[in-house]
Amino acid sequence: MTMPSNNKNQPSNSLENRRRPYGKYRVRLAGSSIFSCLIMGCLLLLQVSPLQAAPAGKTNGTRLYKQSADTLIVAKDGSGDYSSIQKAIEDAKAYPPRRIIIYIKKGVYNEQVRIPVWSPDISLVGEDREGTVIAYGSYFGQVDKGRNSTFYTATLSVEATGVIVQHLTIENTAGPVGQAIALSVSNDQCLVEDCNIKGNQDTFFATGPYTHVWLKNCLVSGTTDFLFGDATVLVSHSTILCKADSYIVAASTNKGQPFGFVLDHCTLLGATDVKQVFLGRPWRPYAKTVYLNTAMGSFIRPVGWDNWRSKANEATAYYAEYNSHANKAPSATVPAERASWSHQLTGQEAENYTPEKILGNWIRQL
Q: Is 202 a catalytic residue?
């Protein structure tokens, strides 16, 4: 991340029904029975009724994720429909009438993958979380596009609405060479579940005042500001691995936005020799970051929060915790040295941080 300027739809292992969206509704027509024809017609209409995509940057609370789906198979060994994930995405129908699942067999896919805005409702589903890897090594200095080069580096860029990513690893392999994004999300209603998101500085980026992202049961690793952006992001039941003495979250939440980054029921771990880590700092003045029910190691600095060299940020940023505790202790153990401008939530206040309230009604359909 550039410094601020001073000016599951898991497919069956059997591919027997692939590309047969109407197979389970077969009806035997007896002669020219009008009644049977009507039944068939109704069932077909139910299957092919198109799902209206949400306008770019807006939330459609009625988006349906559980639909009959077309499936494309990606395999490095040539046993699928494609050997490249990006090629499968490019061949998928624009604004499809129903969800498209791209099932990715185990292997390391060395490619930069982009899901464009005209490809909503795509699922990338790996065969195995550890064995299905999307890896690429782009970084700020290598891109060389000026001060915003960071945003060109993502291994996986999600630009479409309604994208689901499951059971795979997304990694930026550039190493500790500066800003280098592994996963970038810039549109609404994105679920990332059971995934490893690996990098160093700026591992995960989510942007857009109407963008809502759910990282669920994931591992996110990095060094500096490795969760950042202005979107609304819920990270739940996940492991956060700190690889350096630095900062975890660098939110840039827009003024008036109700939520920024929320980490709930997570575990913060430190790599060997990591001893001084901040929970977060404000990339922009109105940053919001909240930790709920999160286990924290002794490597988290007692003060917790940093103001990014600006006293003025203390009056606008919102940083809060509820039930933060040591990794092996269930009771709250928040140090008395926590930044005076941060907040400790009451139980009643913490009840406002439910997945539906943070992300919206679309998650009911997951």
A: yes
